[in-house]
TrEMBL record:
InterPro entries: NTF2-like_dom_sf, SnoaL-like, Steroid_delta5-4_isomerase. This is SnoaL-like domain-containing protein. NCBIfam families: SgcJ/EcaC family oxidoreductase. Residues 14-135 form the SnoaL-like domain.
Length: 139
């Protein structure tokens, strides 16, 4: 569940972007997602390749993921925290992601995310996104 409390100004705008982003992921709306990203966004995701630079690279990643899923994606955001000052902000969260593959199998993971935002020309956009999956290392 997303933590909520009264927000004003930049914080309210970023919270609105986050809510729209969450809906777009759950419903696999690539175009809507990309509206909230800077054209030169840098994304480090859990799915290869390690780095995605710019809208087109990120579009390919999203289309690949969404194209391998049947139905909507279960995406639950927990521990979402936002900090902002001036024209920069970042958030971090722990997310529970599940979907059904085209093979009928359920796939899921707990994914940590850190998102950087920048306000340019009066609009907040994601400029950096980093997702990771906790893993145990062998002793």
């Amino acid at each position: 569940m997303v933590e909520t409390y009264p927000a004003h100004g930049g914080e309210a705008a970023i919270r609105a972007i986050h809510a729209a982003w969450l809906d777009a992921v759950r419903n696999k709306k690539v175009g809507t997602l990309l509206e909230h990203y800077d054209p030169d966004v840098v994304v480090f995701d859990v799915m290869p390749p390690t780095e995605h630079r710019g809208h087109e690279a990120y579009r390919r990643l999203l289309e690949g993921w969404f194209g391998q899923t049947a139905g909507p994606i279960h995406f639950e955001v927990t521990q979402w925290h936002l900090m902002h000052a001036g024209d920069l902000a970042f958030s971090h969260s722990v997310n529970i992601v599940r979907n059904t593959g085209l093979d009928g199998q359920t796939h899921g993971a707990t994914v940590r995310a850190t998102v950087g935002y920048r306000k340019t020309q009066g609009r907040w956009r994601v400029v950096h996104e980093h997702a990771s999956v906790p893993m145990k290392l062998a002793p």
